[in-house]
UniProtKB/TrEMBL annotation:
Ranges for domain Peptidase S1: 31-252
One Pfam family this sequence matches: Trypsin
UniProt keyword Signal present: yes
SUPFAM superfamilies: Trypsin-like serine proteases
Signal peptide coordinates: 1-25
Keyword Signal belongs to the record: yes
Molecular function (Gene Ontology), one example: serine-type endopeptidase activity
GO biological process terms, semicolon-separated: proteolysis
SMART domains: Tryp_SPc
Keywords assigned by UniProt, alphabetized: Disulfide bond, Signal
Name of the featured protein: Trypsin
Tree of life domain: Bacteria
Length: 252
C-alpha cells in the first residue's frame, strides 16, 4: 500500500514508504480524475506545508483545530514546524493566510504498519477567521451506507506518480460496503477505515491528498488515508472513519 503524502524535496527518504505486497495499501496524493475547485466554496480545506512546500491536506473542524492523518505528522520530529495555509486555491500562488501551529495530537493507538487509527489534529495558537465543517458524530452509520456520494478535495497528484496539482481539485466518489472494502484490502487495513471509489477506477485521491477531507451530505465523514496506487481498477481509496473517533476528538 502507499501512503498519500507528497514528497518534500530533501526529505524523500523520510516520506516515501515501500511497497509491502499486493494486498497492502498506502497514503494517497492529489485527486485523480477531478476538476478545479475553490476555497471560496470549501473555506475549511487547508494545505499543510513544511518550508513552504505542500505535503498533506487538512480540514478546519473548529476555528482553532485542523484535522488530518497521523501519518502526515508522525514522521516529523516537531510537527509544530508545519504551516497551515488557508484560503489559497493555488498550491504555488499567493493569497490566503498562513497560520502557525502551537501544538498537536496524534491518536495514541496509531498503527503505521496497517494505518489503523490514522487520525491527528493540529492546534493553532488563537482562533482564526475561517469557517469550519461539522464532523459526523460518534457511532453514526447512515453517512457510511454504500452508495452515498463523498466529495474529496486536495492538491495531490493528478496521476499516479505524477505531479502535484497547481489548483485545488475536487471529485465525487461512491462509498462502498464493508464487504467490498474487505475484498479490496486485507483485514488489518480496514479496521478503522471505509472505502470509496469506482470498480473501474479512474477517480481517486493520490499522493499529496493525505489528511484531506471526504465530505458526505455536508459533513466531514473521513480523512484521506491510503490506497493501492491511484485510481486503479479494483483499488478504492481508504478513509479514516470519523464516527469511530468523534467522541475522542471532542475531548482534544
Amino acid at each position: 500500500m502507499r501512503r498519500r503524502t507528497a514528497v518534500i524535496l530533501g526529505l524523500v527518504a523520510v516520506l516515501l514508504t515501500s511497497l509491502v505486497g499486493a494486498a497492502q495499501a498506502g497514503p494517497k496524493p492529489d485527486i485523480v480524475g477531478g476538476g478545479d475547485a475553490s476555497t471560496q466554496d470549501y473555506p475549511w480545506v487547508v494545505s499543510l506545508r513544511i518550508n513552504g512546500q505542500h505535503f498533506c491536506g487538512g480540514t478546519f473542524i473548529s476555528n482553532q483545530q485542523v484535522l488530518t492523518t497521523a501519518h502526515c505528522l508522525a514522521w516529523l520530529d516537531d510537527p509544530t514546524r508545519i504551516e497551515v495555509v488557508a484560503g489559497r486555491d493555488q498550491r504555488t500562488g499567493d493569497g490566503g493566510d498562513v497560520f502557525a501551529v502551537s501544538s498537536y495530537w496524534i491518536q495514541p493507538d496509531y498503527d503505521p504498519d496497517y494505518y489503523r487509527n490514522d487520525i491527528a489534529m493540529l492546534m493553532l495558537p488563537e482562533p482564526v477567521p475561517y469557517p469550519w465543517i461539522e464532523i459526523v458524530e460518534d457511532g453514526e452509520t447512515q453517512p457510511y451506507e454504500a452508495g452515498n456520494v463523498g466529495t474529496i478535495l486536495g492538491w495531490g497528484d493528478t496521476t499516479e506518480d505524477g505531479a502535484l496539482a497547481e489548483t485545488l481539485q475536487q471529485a465525487e466518489v461512491p462509498l462502498l460496503s464493508d464487504e467490498d472494502c474487505a475484498a479490496a484490502y486485507a483485514e488489518p487495513y480496514i479496521t478503522t477505515v471505509f472505502c470509496a471509489g469506482y470498480a473501474e477506477g479512474g477517480i481517486d485521491a493520490c499522493q499529496g491528498d493525505s489528511g484531506g477531507p471526504i465530505v458526505v451530505d455536508g459533513r466531514l465523514a473521513g480523512v484521506i488515508t491510503f490506497g493501492r496506487g491511484c485510481a486503479r481498477e479494483g483499488s478504492p481509496g481508504a478513509y479514516t472513519k470519523l464516527s469511530l473517533f468523534a467522541a475522542e476528538l471532542h475531548q482534544v
